[in-house]
């Protein structure tokens, strides 16, 4: 069974977006390098991001870290709010072969009927479905409210943070409304990219 990794880009004060869901300069490092990322999940080929017209282009250091991470993902787990914000990437997972959406509402009627998206009511059921679909590949959980709930349920194995050098002051928290205490192990990965610091921590059991 693959590991469950909670991930997002985050400001140094712990926010993944401002209160209006704007990411500001958080993702600038995705487009400021000279190394193109490729998508290896369903559909294959280069993953073309609409911003900037050239897809993800990272520094070589960041690309050497991010590409294997993307390649290892089998399933993405996200909340309904994020799904609505990006319209489910128009039915094309940016990594992996499936997306599991935690939602009390069903898939929008007529929305990309053949897309490999699964709508599940509840975080425990979502992780069970994701692990069933992923096999021994990684289940990537988007940080935020749903990610915080999955952490609180004891279902996260690792926390991965791409820390951008910006202070937001307020906004959407990496761990959502999680207000407990969870010890992490010392980081087993610390990689300094261009305008980003890649960190990975195992969750202490």
From TrEMBL:
<dbReference type="GO" id="GO:0009231">
    <property type="term" value="P:riboflavin biosynthetic process"/>
</dbReference>
<dbReference type="InterPro" id="IPR002734">
    <property type="entry name" value="RibDG_C"/>
</dbReference>
<protein>
    <submittedName>
        <fullName>Dihydrofolate reductase</fullName>
    </submittedName>
</protein>
<feature type="domain" description="Bacterial bifunctional deaminase-reductase C-terminal">
    <location>
        <begin position="4"/>
        <end position="182"/>
    </location>
</feature>
<dbReference type="GO" id="GO:0008703">
    <property type="term" value="F:5-amino-6-(5-phosphoribosylamino)uracil reductase activity"/>
</dbReference>
<dbReference type="InterPro" id="IPR024072">
    <property type="entry name" value="DHFR-like_dom_sf"/>
</dbReference>
<dbReference type="Pfam" id="PF01872">
    <property type="entry name" value="RibD_C"/>
</dbReference>
């Amino acid at each position: 069974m693959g590991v469950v990794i909670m991930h997002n880009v985050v400001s140094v004060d712990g926010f993944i977006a401002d209160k209006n869901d704007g990411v500001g300069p958080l993702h600038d490092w995705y487009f400021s390098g000279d190394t193109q990322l490729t998508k290896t999940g369903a559909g294959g080929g280069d993953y073309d991001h609409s911003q900037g017209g050239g897809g993800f282009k990272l520094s070589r250091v960041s690309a050497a870290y991010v590409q294997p991470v993307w390649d290892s993902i089998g399933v993405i787990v996200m909340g309904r709010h994020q799904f609505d914000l990006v319209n489910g990437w128009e039915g094309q997972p940016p990594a992996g072969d499936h997306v599991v959406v935690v939602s009390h509402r069903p898939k929008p009627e007529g929305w990309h009927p053949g897309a490999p998206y699964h709508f599940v009511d509840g975080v425990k059921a979502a992780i069970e479905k994701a692990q069933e679909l992923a096999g021994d590949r990684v289940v990537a959980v988007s940080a935020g409210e749903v990610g915080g709930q999955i952490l609180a349920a004891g279902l996260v194995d690792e926390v991965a943070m791409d820390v951008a050098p910006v202070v937001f002051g307020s906004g959407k928290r990496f761990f959502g409304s999680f207000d407990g205490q969870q010890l992490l192990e010392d980081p087993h990965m610390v990689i300094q990219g261009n305008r980003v610091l890649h960190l990975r921590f195992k969750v202490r059991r």
